[in-house]
Amino acid sequence: MTQEKPPFWREILESVILAVVLAAVIRLWLFEPFYIPSPSMQPTLYPRDRIIVNKLSYRLHPPKRGDVVVFKFPLDPQRDFIKRIIGLEEETVEIRQGYVYINGRRLEEPYLSYEPVPNYGPVKVPRGYLFVMGDNRNNSEDSRFWGCLNKKYLVGKAFFIYWPPHRIGLIR
Fold first, then answer.
1. Fewer CB atoms near the end CB (10 Å): N or C, the chain?
2. Which residues are catalytic?
């Protein structure tokens, strides 16, 4: 007994449905592209950069200082923001003479181009929260202005620039 081959149109339709389901699963739970609209993360990210965010990373391990993260803006969760994690829960964050101090120790930030920013803090980061800042400190709306970020708003870790072509690479 021989099995009859399904019609060509049915094979195409099944392939398209499978591709759409896989794309939806990948975008909802694994990786999502984002567009950078502002200069708040310069010199790490520039306006019009396009990046990929790993949405699975914080389900496998806790956020780390220095990670560049996309999150729902706490004052308007319809908007996505991108910043760098500076302070972890139960740490004290302070800015003195343009430098960030964590629990009294100066934080080394090789990703910054130094421009003095106003003094800030000290602020203790509550349990379950993070302190986030843009790399372009003088042009960033971040935890200094709206408070610490509840971890429940994290979308994922930004890890790759895929556009424009001359900037393709990992985000550090």
1. N
2. 40, 83
pTM of the model: 0.88
Q: What are the CA-CA distances from residue 130 to residues 34, 36, 71, 133, 172 (Å)?
A: 21, 21, 11, 10, 19
CA 1 remoteness from chain centre = 57
**Which H or E run includes 8?**
helix 8-25
- Write out pLDDT tens, residues 57-102: 999 999 999 999 999 999 999 999 999 999 999 999 999 998 999 9
CA distance 55 to 42: 23
Here the contacts of 47-50 (C-beta below 8 Å, separation 24 or greater) are 48/164, 49/161, 49/163, 49/164, 49/167, 50/161, 50/162, 50/163, 50/164
pLDDT tens-digit profile of 93-149?
999 998 999 999 999 999 887 778 899 989 999 999 999 999 999 999 999 999 999
162 SS3 class? strand
